[in-house]
C-alpha cells in the first residue's frame, strides 16, 4: 500500500549542524527496500545523555538496555534500525543489540554501554545480526549527512520527515538544539514506534538534562495520542555534547537553565505535534485545552480521555461540534469533575457553560472552525487551577483503511 | 440514516411472563417518530430492587436519583424514556424526573421514590414535561404488552430487540428471570446508553439482590466494550417480585442462592453480549480470554486494554492474526506482565508462546478462524492464577460511517 503524505504535514525546517555530532546513514536492508534504514550518530567524548522510555510492561531489549545505559549519563554513539523492532524476540533480540554495541564500541574505542541502540519495525523477528553487522560497517565508513537524511532514515510508515530546531542564550553563549522524530501511529506488521532524538551543543550535567527532559516529556510527548495505543519501543533520547562552551548547566540555579529548558520544551513540543500531524488517516489536528481541573495531572488525564475517545474523534472528523460526546469523555476520565460547572468551547465559542447548553449558541462560526484543519477544543472544569493541553488527530476512514484493509 | 440490522444479531428469545410485573408501552413522541418510546413496568407491592450505575462523573439526574432510590430496597414502577437522555440539563432535568415520579406514584398510590426513571437519547435538552406527562398517562391506560414490545420501546439506535431468559430451582420452587436491554455504542446526537432491566418472580432480600447483581455486573456488563466510551446514563436494574413463593433468599446460606446467582449471571452475560452484538459497525464478535494474571481484576484490566485497542480491533476487522498488536495492548494495560512468559492464541492455535513466536506456527487454521463471525483470542500471562473474559466487536468502516459521516 502506498501511503500518501499526510495533509497535515509541515516542511522540514532548516537546522544547523551541532558541533560534536556526526550523522551517517547506511543500507542494512532490514526489509526488502532500497533506502537507508540504519542511522548512526557519532557523539564526541563527554556527551551527556538522558532518556525517557515507554512504560510498556512488554518493552523491547533496546528499551530495557537503554533505561540502564542513560543512568551512566554519557554516550558516544546512537544506532537506529528501521524495519525491524526486535521486540518480542527474547534472548536472541538482546544478543543482536549487544553485537551492534560491541561493533560500534570497537570502532570508536569507547565502552559498549556508551552505544545506544533503537529499533523500529516488524516485531517477533530477531534483528538479523548479519544485516546489522553490514549496515553498521557501512555507516561507520559513510560520508556524514544532514538532518533530513537522518530523519528520513529512521522513518518506517511515516509519510514525511520530521525535525525541529530551537536556540537559547546561556550567559553570552548561543546554544543550538536540533531534534528528529519518527512515528505515526502503529501499523501492521510494523509497530510505528515513536523514536525521538534531540541533540544540543550545550554543556549540561547529565542528571539535570534528565530532569529537564522528564519535565518536558510530561508536557509534550506524554500529551499526544493518535489512537491511545503505546508501542513496546517508544523512546526519546537527548544528547548534549558541550561543544558550545557555555558555563555548564548543573541545575535550576545555573545561569541560562530556564532558557535552555524552554528551548528543550519547544523542540519536544514541536516534535510531539509532528507525530500527531502524521497520525494514521488524520485530516485534522486537534488541540484539547483543559483548565479548571484540581491539578495539572488531572487536567492532562481529562484531556487524554477526550483525545482518546473514538466518539469525539469521529465527531470532529465529521465536522460535528458534538459537545455531548465531550461531556461523556470528561465523565469517564475518572478524574474530579462537576457536571454543573462544566463548560465546553469549539474554536473559542462556548457551546455549553456551567453544565447547561448556551441558550443563544450560534453554531455558524463553530461550523466554519470545524471545517478547518486546526481544531481548538477547550474544556473548563470550573473546580480548580490545574491545566494542560493535549494534541491528537481525528479518527477517519483512512485509519481503518491503513489498519484493517492492509494485510501483513 | 437507515441503520441495517447487525450481522451479529440474534433472534428475540421466548420469555415467560413474570408474576407481579405488568408491562405497558406508549407514545410520548420525544422525537419526531411514530413508535412507542415510553415503557412502563408496574411492579407488585413488596418488589425488591437493586441497581448498578455508570461511574461517570457527569451522570444524569436519573442516575443520581436512582443511586439513592435503590438503597431503599423496594420499587413499584419503572419508567423508561427513549429519545431524550435528559443528561446535562441541570435543575430542569431533575424537575422533569420528579414530575414523572409524582404522576406515577399518584396513579399507583405508592411513594414517589418507589418509581424508578431512566432516559436515553439526545443530551442537553431537558425532557419535555408535557410530552412525558401525556406519555405516562397513555402508558397508565394502555393494554399490557409482552417482552419484545417493551424491549423495542426502550431502543434508540439499536438495530434489533434484545432479551434474555433463565430459570432456577430454589428448594422445590422454579423461578424465572427475564431481562431486556438496549445499547449499541454511542451515536450522535443520541448517547446510546446501555439500559438493562432484569425481572424475576423470586423472593430475594434487597441487600442480597444488590450483592448478587454487583457481583454479576463485574463479570458481565463491566466486561464488555464497544468503543471504550461510557455513557452518562448507563444503568442496570434488577426487580424481584417474590410472587414465586420460594423461601426468601437472604444470603449465600439460603437454599438455592447459588442457583439463583448463577441464573442471574447467565441473564446478565447474555444481555451484555447482545449489546456487543449490536456494536456500531460490528462485523465480528470477539471473546478475549485472559488467564495467568496476578488476579481476576488484573486479568479483566488486561482484557479491556486489548478489547479497547483500535489496533487490535482493526486487525481483527481485517482478519489479520496480528499478535504483535496484542503484545502491545498487554504492555500498555499497566498491569503486571512479563514479556518472556506471554502466550497468545487465535481460535485455540498458539501464535506466540513464552515470549517468542511459535516456530512451526501454521497460520492456515487461524486464517480460517478469523474469517468467521465469532473470534476467540486467548492470552496467557503466565504469572498467576487470575482470569477473566471480556467481549468486544471489531472496529470497521461502519463505525466511522455511523459516527463521523452522520451529522446531528
Automatic annotation (TrEMBL), chains A, B:
GO terms for cellular component: cytoplasm. Substrate binds at residues 156, 182, 193, 280, 403, 408. It holds the Pfam family ArgJ. CDD domains: OAT. The active site is at residue 193. SUPFAM superfamilies: DmpA/ArgJ-like. This is Arginine biosynthesis bifunctional protein ArgJ. It comes from Erythrobacter longus. The lineage of its organism: Bacteria, Pseudomonadati, Pseudomonadota, Alphaproteobacteria, Sphingomonadales.
Amino acid at each position: 500500500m502506498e501511503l500518501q503524505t499526510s495533509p497535515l504535514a509541515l516542511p522540514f525546517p532548516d537546522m544547523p549542524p551541532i558541533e560534536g555530532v556526526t550523522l551517517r546513514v547506511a543500507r542494512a536492508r532490514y526489509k526488502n527496500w532500497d533506502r537507508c534504514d540504519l542511522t548512526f550518530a557519532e557523539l564526541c567524548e563527554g556527551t551527556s545523555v538522558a532518556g525517557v522510555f515507554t512504560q510498556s510492561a512488554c518493552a523491547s531489549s533496546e528499551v530495557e538496555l537503554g533505561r540502564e545505559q542513560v543512568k551512566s549519563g554519557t554516550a558516544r554513539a546512537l544506532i537506529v534500525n528501521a524495519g525491524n523492532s526486535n521486540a518480542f524476540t527474547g534472548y536472541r533480540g538482546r544478543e543482536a543489540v549487544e553485537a551492534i554495541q560491541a561493533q560500534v564500541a570497537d570502532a570508536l574505542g569507547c565502552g559498549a554501554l556508551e552505544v545506544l541502540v533503537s529499533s523500529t519495525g516488524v516485531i517477533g523477528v530477531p534483528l538479523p545480526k548479519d544485516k546489522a553487522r553490514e549496515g553498521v560497517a557501512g555507516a561507520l565508513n559513510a560520508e556524514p549527512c544532514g538532518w533530513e537524511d537522518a530523519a528520513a532514515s529512521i522513518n518506517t510508515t511515516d509519510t514525511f520527515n520530521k525535525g525541529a530546531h530551537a536556540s537559547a542564550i546561556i550567559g553570552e553563549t548561543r546554544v543550538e538544539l536540533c531534534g528528529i522524530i519518527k512515528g505515526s501511529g502503529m501499523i501492521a506488521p510494523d509497530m510505528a514506534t515513536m523514536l525521538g532524538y534531540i541533540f544540543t551543543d550545550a554543556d549540561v550535567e547529565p542528571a539535570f538534562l534528565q530532569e529537564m527532559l522528564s519535565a518536558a516529556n510530561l508536557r509534550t510527548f506524554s500529551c499526544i495520542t493518535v489512537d491511545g495505543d503505546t508501542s513496546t519501543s517508544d523512546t526519546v533520547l537527548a544528547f548534549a555534547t558541550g561543544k558550545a562552551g557555555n558555563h555548564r548547566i548543573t541545575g535550576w540555579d545555573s545561569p541560562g537553565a530556564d532558557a535552555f529548558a524552554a528551548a528543550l520544551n519547544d523542540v519536544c513540543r514541536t516534535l510531539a505535534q509532528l507525530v500527531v500531524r502524521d497520525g494514521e488517516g488524520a485530516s485534522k489536528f486537534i488541540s484539547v485545552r483543559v483548565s479548571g481541573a484540581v491539578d495539572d495531572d488531572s487536567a492532562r488525564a481529562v484531556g487524554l480521555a477526550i483525545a482518546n475517545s473514538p466518539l469525539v474523534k469521529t465527531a470532529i472528523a465529521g465536522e460535528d461540534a458534538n459537545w455531548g460526546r465531550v461531556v461523556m469523555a470528561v465523565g469517564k476520565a475518572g478524574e474530579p469533575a462537576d457536571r454543573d460547572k462544566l463548560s465546553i468551547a469549539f474554536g473559542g465559542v462556548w457551546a455549553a457553560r456551567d453544565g447547561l447548553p448556551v441558550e443563544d449558541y450560534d453554531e455558524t462560526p463553530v461550523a466554519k472552525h470545524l471545517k478547518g484543519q486546526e481544531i481548538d477544543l477547550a474544556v473548563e472544569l470550573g473546580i480548580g487551577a490545574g491545566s494542560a493541553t493535549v494534541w491528537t488527530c481525528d479518527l477517519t476512514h483512512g485509519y481503518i483503511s491503513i489498519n484493517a484493509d492492509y494485510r501483513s
